Each structure stands twice: as structure tokens, then as C-alpha cells.
Amino acid sequence: MSTSHYVVLRAGTRPSSETEIKRSRFLGYAARTPSEDEARDFLAELRREHREARHICHAFVIDPDRSIQRSSDDAEPAGTAGVPILKAITARQTAPGRAELSDITVAVVRYFGGIKLGAGGLVQAYSNAAASVLDVADVIDRQRMRLIELALPIGEAARTETRLRGQGVIIESVDYRVEDTRLTIAVADEPMQIESAMAQLSSLTAGGAAPTIGEQLWRDLG
After folding, report:
1. Domain ends where: 73, 105, 137?
2. What are the residue ranges in the chain where pLDDT is below 50?
3. Under 8 Å between Cβ of 108 and 58
4. Which three-class secondary structure string do you get for 166-184?
5. Which residues contact 135 (CB under 8 A, 6 or more apart)?
């Protein structure tokens, strides 16, 4: 895994949109899906909700490196639905010049209105429907973090914790034990950030306690 940062839907949100083209209704839905199983569960839920729909086309992108990408035309002409939806996800700029959206499934439910759109019309319709639901999506950064642990004398723990919080440091946990207190912070898993945090912790304790680097974890920011 090379990336240490990407963009996801805010947890608990499920954006939707609706467009109509030549009497066909295109309902766009998106969900945060960190795994293929969750993506397929979301699609199964939509199929139960829209049993009368002619097509439920979709695409999903999963993994911090966006290594898992799938799409389906769901009986629309090949290449007219799933691929345009997938391109809407992968091309979505999350910052100037950066496209990092992942762990997401976008589905477009089509209720046929009786007028054929042609291949070009379908590509445009599904592209627009996917873009519309992404336009209203609430997205946030997701950062790979590194835990750093510091063992402190019980009498110094509260003061150190207060100072760290005042400096904006993320306190992951405070474990009060008989012999000492274990203070664990989380910093961005980047060499400069880790080096700075180690120096900061050493300075706070005047070199009296040596911080140790622990495991990685992913954290939503914002």
C-alpha cells in the first residue's frame, strides 16, 4: 500500500439524486463501501427497493490505492452505463489536480420511459446521473496514522496530556496502570510527522521517557 491519504464519503451518509431524460428516470445513489461484500450488500438493498426498475447499473472503487474497480451495465448496451459511472468516480477531483475518491459504490437506477436514447445518449445520461450524486456527496479525508506510545510516571501524565491536547495532538488513549501511565498519540504516518512527534514527546519529558512507535491505523479527519 503506497498511499497514506485518500477521500471517502462521510460515515453514515448516503447521497442521492434524480434526473429525467426523455421520460426515463435516472436515480443516482452512493454509499461508502470499504469492501466488495459491502458494495454488493448495498446493491442488493437497491434491487429490493426498486424491483420495477429496468436497470440498476453501478461501479465501485475500493482500497486506499483504488486497486479494486468494478462496473456493470446491467443489460444496457455494453460500455454505455457501468464504465461511464466508473469514470465519474475515478475522475472526480477531490482537490485541484487530485482524484482520490475511494471506498465508494455509485449506482444509477433507470426507470425506462419508453423512448430509446441510443448509445451516446445512454453514456451521457449515466455519466450525468453519477456526477449528480457525487456533486451532493459529503466527502472527507481519510489518513493513515501511526501510534506512538509514551510511558510516564503517574504524577506527570495529566500535565503532559493537557499540554499535548493544547498543542492539537490527537490523544488515542490514556492507560493508567499501577507502575506508570501509558499515553498513546496518533500522528500522520509520514516520516517528517513521526520524527517531529517523537522530538516533541522527548522535549515534553526533558528526555526522561523514550517514546516508542506502534501500529498503523486509518482515521477519518473532519
Report:
1. 137
2. none
3. yes
4. HCCCEEEEEEECCCCEEEE
5. 17
What is the domain range of residue 163? Answer: 142-221
> Is the separation of the CB atoms in 117 and 123 below 8 Å?
no
Rounded Cα gap, residues 193 and 95, in angstroms: 22
User: Which three-class secondary structure state does DSSP give residue 57?
Assistant: strand
Q: How many CA atoms lie within 13 A of 6 on its CB side?
A: 22
pLDDT tens-digit readout, 80-130? 999 999 999 999 999 898 999 999 999 999 999 888 899 999 999 999 999
Q: Quote the number of domains for the chain.
A: 2
**Are the C-beta atoms of residues 91 and 99 closer than 8 Å to each other?**
yes
Give the CATH number, domain containing residue 96: 3.30.230.30
132 and 195, same structural domain? no
Question: Which residue type does 117 have?
Answer: L
Question: Are 80 and 73 a contacting pair, CB within 8 Å?
Answer: yes
Residue where the block lists cell 453514515:
12
All 3 cell numbers of residue 189? 504516518
Distance (Å, whole) CA 94 – CA 221: 14
Residues in a beta bridge with 104: 32, 61
Q: Which pLDDT value is given to residue 166? A: 87
Among 109, 138, 110, 119, smallest CA distance to 31 is for 138
